[in-house]
Amino acid sequence: MQKFLTGASYPLRALGVLRRHPTLWQYIIVPVFLNIFVGITLYAGLLVAGFRAIDGVIAGLPEWLAFIAWLLRALLIVVLLIATGYVLVRFGVVIGSPFYSRLSERLEERFSGVVFDAPPPTVGNVARDIARALLFEIKKLILALTIGAPTLLLNLIPFVGSLLATAGGIALSATISCLDFFDPPLERRRLRFRDKLGFVRQGLPATAGFGLVCLGLVSIPLINLLAVPLCITAGTLFYCDRHGSEHALSGNGSSPQAGSN
């Protein structure tokens, strides 16, 4: 339980770090404004369509279920907000990946003593970073479909099925949150996707606490616009603490050659 709570505390620690080191905000401002623009577009489109769909579902309920209409509406609205927030975070992580990578580098240099020889932020390098981020998103989507689809089938089991499906869905979402926010330091090591999953698994139960708190933060509308850089900071601090004795990437602290994700 202590390790679980320690992992859950990292977003709060990250908030303190960002407050004490305002120079780090130069890597946050641009993606936050991009997130706001994307967020306005997504919320304006998805929420309007979603509320119309919810009204249609409620209107189609048989009369004998009318007494739970308000509860069903509330649950569907919560699901809609979480789903919209999830889509927003997916866009935010990809669009902001070059900036968040630099943020994570500066954090690791400050807290682990690692010195990075990062490539300059040219158009080509930024495009390459975004391409790798897109590939990473595709692999996470495959993971979500591979595990998520069988998890949904648990709802067919009477009584306990829904509870098992909900628990499985939360565990999967928390795992994806860990992959999102541990990725900058792991990607600098050019780890394969399976090795990134291994980092999450080996860090249990601390990574479980971290993932659940981050999942909660990115599911809250508006707050999730700022939650992504906060959780990126928290993930890097988590990595630095876990690998505090690591002072180099390939013997001299420079970045390794790109490899398979």
TrEMBL record:
The chain crosses the membrane at residues 24-44, 64-89, 141-157, 203-223. Keywords: Amino-acid biosynthesis, Cell inner membrane, Cell membrane, Membrane, Sulfate transport, Transmembrane, Transmembrane helix, Transport. GO terms for molecular function: high-affinity sulfate:proton symporter activity. It holds the Pfam family EI24. GO terms for biological process: cysteine biosynthetic process; sulfate assimilation. One of its GO terms (cellular component) is plasma membrane. It is a multi-pass membrane protein. InterPro entries: CysZ-like, CysZ/EI24. It is found in: Membrane. This is Sulfate transporter CysZ. It comes from Roseiflexus castenholzii (strain DSM 13941 / HLO8).
